Amino acid sequence: MAQLIYxxxxxxxxxxxxxxxxxxxxxxxxxxxxxxxxxATECGLEIRFLQSNAEHxxxxxxxxxxxxxxxxxxxxxxxxxxxxxxxxxxxTCEFPVFEVHISNVHKREAFRHHSYVSLRxxxxxxxxxxxGYELALRRVSxxxxx
Length: 146
Ligand code: DQA
Fold this sequence. Notes:
Elements: E1 3-9, H1 21-24, H2 29-43, E2 45-51, H3 55-68, E3 71-75, H4 84-91, E4 97-101, E5 123-126, H5 131-144
Parallel strand pairs: 1-2, 1-3, 3-4, 4-5
Helix pairs in contact: 2-5, 3-4
């Protein structure tokens, strides 16, 4: 059976395509999902692609993933910079965790330079636009195999 990969998206990413397109681009989260699903099929992986504006929902999905998944790819949105609770949840997972940011957070405001999630992430991709999700998925595919 194909390995299951959770792709989690945090607050405001539901507005991708409409939200500050000069920073985040014109493609929507549905486009990201379609790209990830196509690549997952190619790699023999199964994807659970989710978005929530609520911190507790993201934590509940991480708890779910730790029982069922082989890896997590997460763009925690602004919770990246604030959430010890999401870090704690990710610290309960024993599989690969990758952090993705569409924008280059290091080129932006100082408060975006610190990430709680990076204390757990096995790798971080920032500033590659929505292609960052596919790059992370390719790395996951290499690590977890078919
Ligand atoms: C983001 C960067 C965060 O700083 C911001 O709060 C987001 C999106 C990104 O994908 O570039 O919501 O995670």
